[in-house]
From TrEMBL:
This is Large ribosomal subunit protein bL9m. The lineage of its organism: Eukaryota, Metazoa, Chordata, Craniata, Vertebrata. Residues 132-217 form the Large ribosomal subunit protein bL9m C-terminal domain. Pfam families: bL9m_N (PF25131), Ribosomal_bL9m_C (PF22078), Ribosomal_L9_N (PF01281). GO terms for biological process: translation. It comes from Oncorhynchus kisutch (Coho salmon).
Length: 267
């Protein structure tokens, strides 16, 4: 009786696909249910008594039709946007894996041979010669970002100092969110002390090098006090420039007749 009370039923709901022949177009979607009310004990040798209404009420235990589908594991053989780069292991829907990635040659199955091949490529990436290395997906994205980047480095004009690699690395991290170690950054040989346009080179994973235009501009304090001081300084510079311009204007020439008249003695 306990087995009867815990009985589960499997209901198959057919799904028909018109494009396929009848022999293979039936897909079984199983729904596992069990009785809500237990079946009472019956006398020995007699079948259990089932009530028509009560014992036809079921509760769902498992719905395989609407359950989350298992995803397919693949290894990318080429760089795929929004998925990863060559050698990355991804989990995608089976339809996407079969119809897109595998059909177009963008991925392969994670067989032991394929895993060993991509593991060897990864080893060469870290230990091999520069000409044998392959850029990673994140490295490719970083290179694309750096190619379209224009860096501005702020410098305090009131203090004399040189722009160092650490300062440039901090500026790249703050403004673009890209961490650049100092050994991967190259600056011009001459020291950078004055404001102006310069350049810097960033090497990504020791493979690709990107030259970035860099401008050294005056430092601007973002606080309210700093903005007031900057505004006052600009006003003082404007006034000083106006005074200097007025001082350099040549004096108006006096006509010679007027000068001779002034020289005549007065009675």
């Amino acid at each position: 009786m306990l087995k009867l009370n815990m009985m589960r039923f499997e209901l198959a709901t057919p799904t028909y696909l018109p494009d396929q022949p009848p022999s293979i177009r039936f897909l079984k979607n199983t729904v596992v249910v069990e009785r809500w009310w237990q079946v009472p004990l019956s006398k020995e040798g007699r079948p259990p008594r089932l009530y028509p209404r009560r014992h036809r009420v079921y509760k769902v235990v498992e719905d395989t039709k609407h359950a989350p589908k298992e995803k397919m594991e693949l290894i990318l053989s080429q760089t795929v946007a929004k998925l990863g780069g060559r050698g990355d292991t991804v989990f995608v829907k089976k339809s996407v894996g079969r119809n897109n990635l595998l059909a177009q040659g963008l991925a392969v199955y994670p067989s032991p041979e394929n895993k060993a091949m991509f593991a060897e490529e990864l080893r060469l990436l870290h230990e091999g010669r520069p000409e044998e290395r392959i850029q990673t997906r994140t490295g490719q994205l970083t290179v694309e970002i750096l190619k379209h980047m224009e860096l501005k480095v702020e410098k305090r004009t009131s203090i004399e100092y040189d722009i160092t690699k650490e300062m440039v690395c901090r500026q790249i991290l703050q403004k673009r969110g890209i961490f650049v170690p100092p050994h991967a950054l190259r600056l011009p040989e001459e020291s950078i002390k004055d404001l102006g346009d310069y350049w810097c080179e960033v090497t990504v994973n020791g493979i690709d090098t990107v030259r970035i235009p860099m401008s050294v501009v005056p430092f601007e304090d973002p606080t309210a006090t700093g903005r007031k001081l900057l505004k006052r300084k600009k006003q003082e510079e404007t006034v000083a420039a106006a005074v200097q311009e007025a001082a350099t204007v040549p004096e108006a020439t006096i006509p010679e007749a007027t000068q001779e008249k002034d020289k005549e003695p007065h009675d």
